[in-house]
Amino acid sequence: MDEATGKQGRQQGYGASLEYLTEKISLRAEVLLARGYEKDDCGYVEAAYHLTSKWQLAGSFEYFKGTEPPLPFGVPPTGLQLKEHQALGAALNYWFSPKFVWKLNYYHV
User: Fold this and answer.
1) CA end-to-end span of the chain
2) What's the pTM?
3) Whose CA is closest to 55, among 33, 90, 14, 24?
4) What pLDDT score was predicted for residue 78?
5) Which residues contact 41 (CB under 8 A, 6 or more apart)?
6) What pLDDT does residue 16 have?
7) CA dihedral defined by 10, 35, 66, 7, rounded to 10 degrees?
8) d(C-alpha 42, C-alpha 39), whole Å
9) Cα 12 to the chain's mean position, in Å?
10) How far apart, in whole angstroms, are the C-alpha atoms of residue 4 and residue 1?
11) 64: which of 10, 32, 42, 53 fits an S-S bond (Cβ 3.0–4.6 Å)?
12) Has residue 81 got a pLDDT over 90?
């Protein structure tokens, strides 16, 4: 049951992810769709390229689009500014080892 609306219903989620990695190139993408009393779509794509064995450039695009379930009369909506956004990102990464990386990121949301 949805506590905010009192409605019964089933919420379903569908997701997919892809990844392609080589020594130089890294490509990733994920998407998630939620269906039911709420309808949310989100995902990202990311590409990175190793300039050297230590330095890597990366870029990403992320999005989220969601809906709030109907609210009972008199209840104000909250968080509406968070229900839809897109972000572009760029990064410069320094790999100390395969298990430790320093990342400098910039995002425009």
Assistant:
1) 33
2) 0.73
3) 24
4) 61
5) 31, 32, 33, 34, 63, 64, 65, 66
6) 97
7) -20
8) 10
9) 18
10) 9
11) 42
12) no
